[in-house]
Amino acid sequence: MAVNEGMKFLLEMINCHTFNWSINKKSYEKCVFLIIDKFAQLGFSTEIIETQSGPAIIGFKEGKKKKHLHFNGHYDVVPMIDNQTITSNNSLNSKAKVIYGRGSSDMKGGIVSIWLAMKELINNNKYPSLSFSFSPDEELGGNIGSKLLVEKVKTLLPVPDLIIIADSSYPYLLTGHRGALWLQVSCETKKNYRFNCSSKCSSAFMLACLISPLIEKEIKNYNIFDSFFGGNCTSSSSATNIVSQKFSFSIDIRFSDNKITKNIKNRLISSIKQAVSKFETDGYIISIKDKLFIPTCPDAEIPSFVFNTVKKFIPNCTYGIGKGYYDLRFFRNQFSCPSFILGPGTSEQAHTAEEFIIIKNITDCAKVYTALINNGC
User: Fold this and answer.
1) Distance between CA atoms of residues 256 and 178, nearest Å
2) How far apart are CA 56 and CA 58, in angstroms?
């Protein structure tokens, strides 16, 4: 396997800052043309799909067998935190075990696994038809770019017999994902406002203190797994106890696959409105943005030979349900063939300050993909 070449490919992608299309268009385009060039060398024809979130990519290579395998992923990443560097401590010598950098785990490493598998088959004349699609906005929910991309896959490519999404899941084979409710509460006023509280409390934190008990009360009625709170001051004051003129507060709540209901969203928003009403004084404007990500059905029928092939190269692999929301939901809406998530990144490393990926994970997944292709799916 061309591991060193694959790791160089990964580093090149990591150094493309693909975390905000509106301000990083050149980096997105650089990454897209890099991916196109690498797969073109393997005989793939490609097409760029323009979306409002950036360019998406579709690639296809006709095979000698009637079957068709489709691989999916995304090349966008979450923004860096504070003064994070894009890469750190990277070494491509023979002793290197990990690659650091934003997007290494989620999920540019997965793109490399796909590429390594395709490269292994370059001299194989008995492979099935192969295709791939890479989205520019999975990290934003995929409702613009990923959704359009999957619709294009359906219209431009033959119907796939198997769909593999190389997103962060190692060592699990994910057959579905939980739902999520994402909310952003924003407050704005024309003047600063003094509160009687510790100077260490940001306005977003104070709002969190009001909302948190109400949220906790509500989620006891549901099978909710995780909730995340984050604050962001967009304009602040150094004076003690002065609330910034603009601030926002985000909430990310994950719920189980058997609780698909908009009632979760309606009740939680009602609770938040009750909390923020205490802030609606002195010209404060409160706004709430929300998105509800419906979970995918976890009961997809995965052929036994697929799981047996995965276990051969990843012995500790088990079936699982993803904590987050993936582009899998778009494929499930468009295709009836088996589809699942199996990629070299891990959820523990995704989006972290010192994000990295284990090189062995990349090669393990590449071996799985290669074996599935050789078996004709």
Assistant:
1) 5
2) 7
Architecture of domain 3-177+295-374: 3-Layer(aba) Sandwich (3.40)
Structure tokens at 133: 């699609």
Q: List, for residues 148-199, the tens digit of each pLDDT value.
A: 999 999 999 999 999 999 999 999 999 998 888 887 777 665 555 444 444 3
Q: Specify the length of the chain in residues.
A: 377
Q: pTM, whole model, 2 decimals? A: 0.83
The architecture CATH gives domain 179-293: 2-Layer Sandwich (3.30)
Burial of 98 (0-12, 13-18, 19+ CB in 10 A): middle
Instruction: Copy the structure tokens of residue 311.
Output: 């276990």
Tokens of 137: 């906005």
Name the residue ranges covered by the structural domains of the chain.
3-177+295-374, 179-293
Rounded CA gap, 273 and 288, in Å?
A: 9
Extended beta strands in the chain, E state: 45-51, 54-61, 65-74, 98-100, 128-135, 162-165, 173-177, 179-188, 193-194, 224-235, 242-243, 246-255, 285-293, 319-322, 339-341, 356-358
